[in-house]
Structure prediction request, 295 residues.
Amino acid sequence: MFENLTDRLERSFKILKGEGKITEINVAETVKEIRKALIEADVNYKVAKTFTDEVKRKALGMNVLNAIKPGQLMVKVVHDELVSLMGGQATDINLAGNPTVILIAGLQGSGKTTFSAKLANHLKNKKGKSPLLVAGDVYRPAAIEQLKVLGQQINVPVFTIPGSNDPIGIAREAVRVAKNNNQNVVIIDTAGRLAIDEEMMKEVEAIKKAVSPNEILFVVDSMTGQDAVNTAKEFNDRLNFDGVVLTKLDGDTRGGAALSIRAVVDKPIKFVSTGEKLDALDIFHPDRMADRILG
Ligand code: GDP
Prediction:
């Protein structure tokens, strides 16, 4: 994960090796390399600039502490800025409501269906919840089948209305059924398209209006870098979602989406998905991610 970025950052810290103290000159050289590393990682340009300006300011400000070596000081400053860039602290999902209604949105292929099942599994095993999965992608029978198969694997029921092409009605009915059956979390997997399209947006908005979710999670493929960030922005403008789920982090060598999304969209990353298996799901902790990035 993020190997390229880790390597590049490591190289930029080497500039300070052997230097007795941080100076305007060596810090400028170092942050220039850090900025290049971030841009290469597909971090949004403005985000990279603000980040490195802040790193420079803090490194120069901390230079009074002669006890620590410039290289170490820089690693600490970058670490702290990475944590803050990614949101500071882990953010929980909102489990209020009876049942809690969670709406899952995103483009086709982003990993929505897989994540829906992973989330159900997580809430069942870690939070003692009794979830109901809802197959809302009425246009792709394969998607409904996929959710059913996943539901079976984790022993979580999957709600469908065979033959229905009304995802709003399905979502509403699912909430009613969950209430009657004491299922306290309803996870609604919605239809995606390969690119943003007006009909898909209208449909998700209508589902949102019909079931008033406690939590709307936007799922995005981290490997798509700045495209992921732009897609997030468009979905957020329409849905005002509560959190981001970054998928396929196991295949992401660059890290641009993870680093930019919070700053650009101002919504927390709540989960990361790191594989196809149903237990490959982690709560997103900015500090742990910063540790990993710095190797
Ligand atoms: P949807 O169209 O948004 O519902 O996407 P799917 O859940 O069907 O996922 C699309 C493909 O990505 C499937 O082959 C999944 O197995 C795969 N996938 C989903 N999440 C991950 C992940 O975190 N890592 C990897 N490597 N593959 C994933």
